[in-house]
User: Fold these one by one.
Assistant:
Number 1:
Amino acid sequence: MSDKVLGDRIPEFGKPKAGGQANMGGGLGGVSIQSTRELMAVIAVAVLIIGGAEWLLRVFEVPPFIMPTPSSIMAVFFSDELPTIATHAGHTLVELFAGYAIGASIGLLLAALITQFPFAEKIITPYILLLVTTPMLALVPLLILNFGFGYTPRIIAVALASGPMVMINAATGFRRVDLGKIALARSYGASTLQIFTKIRIPMAMPMVLVGLMMGAIFGLITAVGAEMAGGGFGLGSRLTTYSSVIRMPEFFACILILALMGILIYLLFFWLGKRLAGWES
């Protein structure tokens, strides 16, 4: 077979396709934008939806206390209320980061433990299933009763919500490793720790990242719910306050901030997936 034929059949990786296309996605979620035309289409649809909502609300004269216009919602970000909302958003982020760090760390440790020791799985799994099937918001009043109205009950609730998500997905990833690779490593004298760090963790990274992303999103939802139940501070507290005094532009501004937090969480793990688990695609 000639070199020319081989050259025609060998794919060239890492080079953009003809027509100026550039891969802007992949990995977690499989969402990708392949060209500038697709990007412009996404922006056009967003502008159409927002502009159409603005026009419809004005034409039908919908009262602001029922549904404010997008322009009035955006005006909140240029008003004197923004510093107050930003302060409460900071409280929500503190609860999320602290609770998530605790829950994700414990979840990863438990996943490693039950993967290496099947007997430990029989002891731990029933309690993890109990946590997964129990709405954490139902425990918030009990946590507030025992720990007060500060950060502590909210951080505990976030940790309890995020930890099981991380543990279940990480353990699934650790178990899906090809046993042939493990057997080959043992034949070369690799220890259990070496097999876990050099084979199980890298091969399980896609599932681990999915678990971390789900844990972060569940943690954000739980943090907001705990703030709504406990009051005092946080975006969840602002939601209940603004809805009670019918300040709907500020209410939807808080909703928009929470949505942006969720999108940033997805984009963070999307980027990590491309860096740490890009080999899967």
Number 2:
Amino acid sequence: MSEITWIKLKTDMFENDKIKLIEALPAADTIIVIWVKLLAAAGKANLNGYIMLTENIPMNTEEMATIFNRDINTVRLALQTFQRYGMIEVEGEAVRIKNWEVHQNIDGMERAKQLTRERVRRHRERKKQVQLEAPNEENHSNVSVTLRNATDIDKELDIDIEKEIDKEKKDIVPDKSDTIPYASILDYLNEKANTAYRATSKATQQLIKARFSEGFTEHDFYKVIDNKTTTWLNTDFAKYLRPQTLFGTKFEGYLNERVKGNENVRGSNGSTAGESKPSLRGFCSN
């Protein structure tokens, strides 16, 4: 995707009749925030108003709830509202901002796409030239001199390409300096709920990291998992025993629920110093 760092917002957007109708809804503020987040996501994707996770994968409702850090039911309500008022178009899982080309600077966005394609093309040509001109070590020094004599523009383009490559690597390679126990938490959830969620999922890691940044601890995650598996397992709510529900914005509420059978499971406010991680098979009695 050709990333755009800006979008256009009209200064009179709150005078629009559709926005006024939305402001009359109970969850008005959250719905309007979701609208702005959709506009920003469409600009970032730069694919004619489509809300995309990657260039080929549209962002679905659950992914929106996680990335936008909003309750999934509110996101569903927002999308239904936007669709009713003709603000979005829905094609399967794909969501597109209606009349995107009317409200945004399409020429500027298309120019950004062309520049990105040109950077990639020139980068590949230079790599190919290096391979052709440096078949052995004897020619390597000459090639290095040639590359060092590249124009300032070429150097800047190389830097942009390297940044894009680094960004893609960060999306799929876990940060080794990150000490958050993603694997332990997901292993515990999978065993308790009989699921198979991956600790390498970027969306799941973002949720867990957000809770750790708020001061919650590893043991808090185990308690939330115990509380909700005790109340939801083998019920219609079992489908919600998933990271985006358990580790989302309602985490503190789940943590402080008084669930029969889990009274002796302590979270961050009651853990003793040096208390070790519970066994996956015996953290609490059910």
Number 3:
Amino acid sequence: MQNILIPTDFSAEAHNALEVALQLARRTGGHLTLLHVVDAPAGSTMVTTGGVASGSAREGVFMIELLKRTKQRMHELMAEVARMAPEVAVQDCIATGTVNEAVLEVIREQHFDLVVVGAHEHAPTLHLFTPDSLAEHLVRLAPCPVLTVKHPAPDFAVRSIVFASDFSPEADKMLPSLRQLQAAFPEATLHLLDVVTQPNGYAEAIDHIHAFANRHQLPAYEPDVFNAPQVRLGIPRYAAQNHADLVVMLTHGHTGLLHLFGNNIAESVALQAAAPVLTLHPQ
């Protein structure tokens, strides 16, 4: 987690993400890139002089003024970061285009290890009836891990890491990320959580957790099985009840109708849980 991207729209939510990203960079020796996307009119693109390559004259003047204001706000944010964490290397980036697609393009081009993104905490079903947020879009489609942050965290400390899974063989793909987190936060307790929807699933779930831990020789962990009517509801409830500082999950991105009916649990948890949620796709 050395090369970290923080998309910002200069909102309070984006600032929450920045606070967490700075703490991670301090822990890992990483460097940050602050990205702002200017939502440009169709057919307009930014050039090196800050002008506009095409579009009407009126749109061109508007874009030039918008880019000037954006650069000023970015300059102010960079100065704030220098005061908050002078030891962390930070650079800025301004792109134009549709926000969701422009952020994904930057991630792919610059090969980021992690994206830290701010979001609103959603009620369990609210996000099904609202337009996709950038956070939801990135959890679904970003090729690198995404850390979703929903609350201020100026002193982000991780004492409790919850890895939520069914501990099938696919969960083995999380091991490199889990080990990175344990190295960054050696004082944290690792909770291995399986949520079951039927009480008679407890024994099998515990067996899967221990088998996973033994398979990877995890030296210390807390096995936890939590009962809930739905897995996507149980994980945020468990995290809240046990004061988790970080939730970690695999995700399977979907688009279109498959997204609506595919029941992406990690995507739901990333938006519902109060704690920061780290999601990544299986490799």
